[in-house]
Amino acid sequence: MEVKKEIGSFLELDFFKGLEYYKGNAARLNSARAGIYHAARVLNCHTVLLPYYQCETVRDFLLKKGIKVLYYLIDRKFSPKIQACPENTAIVLVNYFGIMGHDRMSHLSSNYQNVIIDNSQAFFSPAIEGCMNVYSARKFIGVPDGAYVIGNHAEDYLQKYELDYSSDTSLFLLQRIEYGCEGKAYQAREANEARINQSDIKRMSKLTHAILDGTDYEHIKSKRRKNFKTACNLFDNINKINPGVFYSDDCIPMVYPLVVEDEKLLPGLIKHKVFQGHWWNYLLAETDPDSFEYYMSKYMIPITIDQRYGENEMKYIFNIISKEL
């Protein structure tokens, strides 16, 4: 009979157990950027081909770990503008916004060897056989950090990584409830971001694992699907891209990507305490102004559709945007 090593004393936060979405043969790590590095390591690739249109933290982490990084552009359909991947190089294919269906990602991956699917924006996207699949937990669930890597031999090297500890910088999750997302809660979150940015690859913390093991995933999936559908009905007529072109029933989006060619829109939203933000503004200095990457970085606003909200919030955001345009 197995018992806890500590019995008695004060009560801790208590979570349901046994609900973890990804069980079995998965590598549980501290961040998706570390997960991409781990996937490249499992594939025995010392060079990684990244899309320009991706968070710079992935690039920076790989370079810090001694991985050579190459880049590719994407077209307006989010397809790589390359024909082949160099030998002994892993290519990262991003499931953008969580709106690229399984068939779409399977088709893209079939064109290359040593494929890493970056599902940081698509936590519930089914793993693709023959690829390394990387998932970020904190973009979909209220956790301080955490990532999964699923694929052949995904659990290799885990014994070489230290266990992460995230409780010291997780207070922002509680402060958000009482103080909102500004002020001290935001400052505490920034401290957690700094910890992740400075961290090496580690195994998932016990705190993050406990939260993920007690989360109602069906509720999250249902709410995000409904909110995305509502957002499509509201915003598709003003959107310069089509978010539904590769969408399928297996998609659980992270955000609704709204592209409107109006630089005053984002400040207008923030003025009304609708906290959105352009992604990856660093690309404005690193890509050609005529490129799709530059265009998306300049104009795309990721509209929040997560499980905290519903139809009323979607309409509220739409009404603000309608007045600002």
What features would you describe in this structure?
With 325 residues, the chain is of the alpha/beta class. The chain folds into two domains: 27-164 and 199-212, Aspartate Aminotransferase, domain 2 (3-Layer(aba) Sandwich), CATH 3.40.640; 218-324, Aspartate Aminotransferase, domain 1. The chain is 34% helix and 13% strand. It is built from eleven helices and nine strands. The strands form two sheets. Strands 1-7-6-5-4-2-3 form a seven-stranded mixed β-sheet, with helices on both faces. The protein has a two-stranded antiparallel ribbon with strand order 8-9. α1 crosses α2, α4 (171-179) packs antiparallel against α5 and α7 (217-235) runs parallel beside α11 (311-324). It is globular. It comes from Anaerocolumna aminovalerica. This is dTDP-4-amino-4,6-dideoxygalactose transaminase.
Instruction: Give the low-pLDDT segments.
Output: none
Radius of gyration: 20 Å
- Count of helical regions: 11
Given helix and strand content, the structural type is alpha/beta
The percentage of residues in β strands lies in: 5-15%
User: Main sheet: which strands, in order across?
Assistant: 1-7-6-5-4-2-3
CATH fold field value of the largest domain = Aspartate Aminotransferase, domain 2
**Average pLDDT metric:** 95
Ends apart, CA distance between termini = 65 Å
Major sheet details: 7 strands, mixed
Based on CA inertia axes, which overall geometry fits?
globular
How many structurally independent domains? 2
The CATH H-level superfamily of the largest domain is Type I PLP-dependent aspartate aminotransferase-like (Major domain)
**Name of the top-level CATH class of the largest domain:** Alpha Beta
- The H-and-E topology, N to C, reads as EHEHEEHEEEHHHHEHHHEH
Q: In which range does the helix fraction lie?
A: 25-40%
